[in-house]
Design goal:
Elements: E1 2-10, H1 16-33, E2 36-42, E3 45-52, H2 54-66, E4 70-80, H3 103-119, H4 125-139
Antiparallel strand pairs: 1-3, 1-4, 2-3
Length: about 140
């Protein structure tokens, strides 16, 4: 089994509806390919960890690199693994109200991510890098 994590920047800010559509398609595909992981989208940036069969994960990453909705796609860690960090996760997502962003909800979202990163024991170096990158990203104040 294999895992990788990457970061990228959205070409344009995605609305909640666009993000939910992207996730529906990704969840369906990933389930059929037995790929699990976690996707964080914050302030127009993505950080994602993918895990599963090496060939399938690499093929998915290659498609992500070519996806016109991303730019600056950077792979920053990969590992051969024996155990998944996110064995039961298709992809988690917390919707934010595009029209009326709520500062309290945003802060709660950030606290929940930090708590999650503290509770999930990374099973490999790539998972550790994923959580470090996530914490760094959400530490940036909103624009």
């Amino acid at each position: 089994m294999y895992t990788l994590t990457y970061e990228s920047t959205a070409v344009k800010t995605l609305t909640s509806a666009e993000m939910e559509s992207l996730l529906d398609k990704a969840r369906t595909h990933n389930k059929s390919e037995n790929i699990t992981g976690c996707l964080i989208y914050y302030k127009g940036k993505f950080v994602q960890l993918l895990e599963g069969d090496k060939k399938k994960v690499q093929e998915l990453y290659d498609r992500i690199v070519e996806d016109p909705r991303h730019k600056k796609v950077t792979l920053f860690s990969e590992d051969e693994i024996v155990k998944r960090t996110f064995p039961n996760w298709g992809m988690a997502y917390y919707p934010m109200d595009d029209e009326h962003p709520n500062k309290y909800e945003l802060e709660q979202f950030k606290r929940n991510l930090i708590l999650l990163s503290d509770l999930i024991e990374p099973t490999n170096l790539t998972a550790k890098h994923f959580w470090i990158k996530t914490k760094t990203m959400i530490a940036e104040p909103p624009k």
